[in-house]
Specification:
This protein is an alpha+beta fold. It is built from 10 helices and 7 strands. The chain folds into 2 domains: about 5-185, no CATH class; about 190-270, no CATH class. It has helices at about 15-25, 50, 55-70, 110-120, 125-130, 145-155, 170-180, 190-205, 215-235, 240-270; strands spanning about 5-10, 30-35, 40-45, 75-80, 85-90, 95-100, 185. Strand 2 (about 30-35) and strand 3 form a beta hairpin. The longest helix is centred in the C-terminal third of the chain and has 28 residues, at about 240-270. The radius of gyration is 19 Å and the shape is globular. The N and C termini lie far apart (about 55 Å).
Amino acid sequence: MDATPVGALLLCRAEPAAVRHPAHLLRERQLLVAAGDEWSVLVPEGKPWLDGGEPVDRVLAGWAAALAVGAHWPVLALWWDGDRAGFTLASGFRRPVGYVWLADGRPVGEDEAMRTFAARLGLDPVLDLQALEPLTLPDPEADARARLLGLIAVLARSGLDLPTGIGPGEPADRLRSVARAQGAETVEWSGWRDAVRAELDAVEEGPLGPWLRGPKARVLGAAQLAAGAPLAAWGLRRRSGGWVVAGVVLMGHGVLGLAYDRMRGRGGGQNT
């Protein structure tokens, strides 16, 4: 077991089949499990927040952003360590939103962040938001783990159902062992050739499919390259592996889109 209860989960609002291909691009071994109606959970196999000395919240924020930039579903990263716990929600190209609690449950986030969180996940603007508001208020009876469990209880109204034993507050080693016992699928890096093929299949079948040909594809690819390069550079300056991954993935989508447009254009005779 870990010396301290450090752990992390990536909750994706999509079926495992849709999460599998994008998760390969993280280049980090993950365990993939269904987590209710149109939800999946990724349990990290490794502990880069220990091996590289980068805080768990920064690692998970980068991973969530990397997954979300190429998908049409949001990604919610949950993390916790001996001092704090919190979440980061990534959705497309929008700026991630997050919230943090100290170990004793004291909120140190902004109320507006919780409202933005609810809106981006499409939660009920009245009932669900009312249920989230207590998480932003002082409560001497609720520690950081209880705060995350309260968050998950609200998301259960939207179909989230985490497998038994997979939840906030557990050490990373226990999360992995429970995920394996639940029959989790292992998702791991298999090289750029397989990753590109898988990414083409996933994107072509998704909502970005119409953007893969012609002027739209070139505009989108150029925009992704323009956004990914500075993001990766920023991650390198901050020594943030997670954000470097996000930038590299974004640039990869741009290169892939431009190459796909050219390849399909040659095969089909002309672009439209």
